[in-house]
Amino acid sequence: MTTSTIDRPRGPGIDIIAVAALFGSLLSVSVGASFAKGLFPAIGPEGATALRLIVSAAVVSIAFRPWRVLGRSDWRSLMPYGIALGVMNLAFYKALAFIPLGVGIAIEFTGPLAVALLTSRRKADFLWIGIAIAGLALLLPIWKGAAHLDWRGVALAAMAGGCWAVYLIAGKRAGEDHGVAAVAGGMVIAALVTAPVGIVYAGAAMLRPDVLMLGLIVGIVSSALPYTLEIIALPRLPTNTFGTLLSAEPAVGALVGLVLLGEMLSLSQWFAVALIVTSSIGAAATARHTGDRSCH
Fold first, then answer.
1. Left if phi > 0, otherwise alpha if psi is -120 to 50, otherwise beta: which for 114?
2. 279 and 59 in contact (C-beta within 8 Å)?
3. On the CB side of 89, how many CA atoms lie within 13 Å of its CA?
4. What's the N-to-C CA distance of the chain in angstroms?
5. Per-residue model confidence as pLDDT tens digits over 45-73
6. Euclidean distance between CA atoms 220 and 281, whole angstroms
7. If you ran DSSP here, which 8-state letter would residue 45 be given?
8. Of the candidates 44, 53, 103, the residue with the CA atom closest to the CA atom of residue 261
9. 4, 9, 83, 190: least buried by Cβ within 10 Å?
10. Residue 292's pLDDT band (boundaries 50, 70, 90)?
11. Which residues 6+ apart lie within 8 Å of 70 measured at CB?
């Protein structure tokens, strides 16, 4: 997962290339997560998380050389950012062992949505908060249509959402201190946080050639590729347009889970995902200020 903060110009019309790049990024993140589930039988969610972040850290380090950041006296601002990133990925991948991909993304998405809405001072945003809460409530395993959802997956996805919220807040500080190099520094810290967990759980299985190959693909598809696509999209889209299109991420995840993993959602779960997407679209469409964006 990475963070970028760029002022996006508000020009006439929609840039088709930028829109295509952003949807490519959303698709890449969900496809990467579905590939990561393919690693679970061999090394579990813990090993998959560690391997994904190690690969991602290596890729972004080539571009941003984080050792320049970590050598500064104020590098400590990266610690909460990197730790939140690592725990977020670990909790999210662990959640995917219990619940479908689309549901996991929808629940996790409430974290950054809460940051956006709860820091607003406009009464209209309470409508979007209410819609998001309604969608989340439908996903909880207390209703007949959602009874088969595992509480462990719901709790872990909610934990990932909370970490995403912390990650956004900490990322703003890290970005102010270190610029785009904070992405690489935070990714290295996240890899260091999750690597011991993955090694303890998976052991030597992480070094199997087939596991390393799939882990390389997951790291590139989940982080390097979407980050590159977002770099294309960010400067070319207005903030509200970017945020509105980004709101499709839970729906994209649900569709990818259906196509690649055969994860069927009930009608109530599709409706819940739609409510969360609607809430995100409403919040983005009525936003007044530029904001931060993070991707998995």
1. alpha
2. no
3. 40
4. 4
5. 999 999 999 998 888 888 777 676 566 55
6. 28
7. H
8. 103
9. 9
10. very low
11. 78, 185, 188
Q: Please tell me the distance from the alpha carbon of residue 158 to that of residue 135, in angstroms, as a whole number.
A: 13
Whether the model clears a pTM of 0.85, i.e. scores above it, the answer is no
What is the per-residue burial (b if ≥16 Cβ within 10 Å, else e) of 195-232? Answer: bebbeebbeeebeeeebeebbbbbbbbbbbbbbbbbeb
35/261 Cα distance (integer angstroms): 9
Question: How many CB atoms are closer than 10 A to CB 124?
Answer: 10
pLDDT tens digit sequence for 248-263: 888 888 889 889 888 8
- 221: alpha, beta or left? (left if phi > 0; alpha if psi -120 to 50): alpha
Amino acid at 177: D
- Rg of the chain over all Cα atoms, to the nearest angstrom: 18
3 state DSSP class of 3: strand
